[in-house]
Amino acid sequence: MARYPTNGLTLAQANAIIAAALAKGRELNLLPLTVVVLDAGGQVKAVQREDGASLLRLEIAEGKAHGTLALGLGGRELARRAQSMQGFMNALSDLSGGKAVPVQGGVLACDASGLILGAVGISGDVSAQDEVCAVAGIEAAGLAAETGDPA
């Protein structure tokens, strides 16, 4: 029987992440969210946009996830680097075609050994709340969330 590479996250894991992230958003009564899950190769694995989510939330969420994968760092660390290394982050944005959004709400999804399996980007509320939902989704799928800050 042929086996196919998953490039990290499975579809089942991606869907579990989204379901738990959106549930957390409803629990916290956040504004409508858009959740994007990328596999380790940076390809969209799954996405959902809640009713009422504002314009460009899909692109922002994907940019948050893409930026974390591009540098292998959580969104909090990307935000710090955007402050201290503006030239580098501008170059990253240019090189990625604008697909790197260096703020909270982009979280790496890792296995127990720390191997990066993919990333989650959420947009819709303030970035810190978006991150809370991303972490909730990743942990609900049995994975470790890397936000860019030490545990």
Structural summary, described in words:
With 151 residues, the chain is an alpha+beta fold. It has one domain (11-140): Beta-Lactamase (2-Layer Sandwich), CATH 3.30.450. It is 44% helix and 19% strand. The protein has five helices and five strands; from the N terminus they run H-E-E-H-H-H-E-E-H-E. It has helices spanning 11-27, 57-71, 75-84, 86-95, 127-140; strands spanning 34-39, 44-49, 106-110, 116-123, 144-146. It has a five-stranded antiparallel sheet. The longest helix is centred in the first third of the chain and has 17 residues, at 11-27. The radius of gyration is 14 Å and the shape is globular. It holds the Pfam family HbpS-like.
Give the mean pLDDT.
94
| Total DSSP E strands | 5
Report the CATH topology name.
Answer: Beta-Lactamase
Cross-sheet strand order for the largest sheet: 2-1-4-3-5
- As for the number of domains, it is 1
Report the radius of gyration as a whole number of Å: 14 Å
Helix content: 40-55%
- Which spans have pLDDT < 50 for at least 5 consecutive residues? none
| Percentage of residues in DSSP E strands | 15-25%
Protein name: Heme-binding protein
Pfam family, one: HbpS-like
Organism: Belnapia arida
InterPro entries: GlcG_carb_metab_protein, PduO/GlcC-like, PduO/GlcC-like_sf
Write the layout of secondary structure elements.
Blueprint lengths: L10 H17 L6 E6 L4 E6 L7 H15 L3 H10 L1 H10 L10 E5 L5 E8 L3 H14 L3 E3 L5
Antiparallel strand pairs: 1-2, 1-4, 3-4, 3-5
Helix pairs in contact: 1-5, 3-4
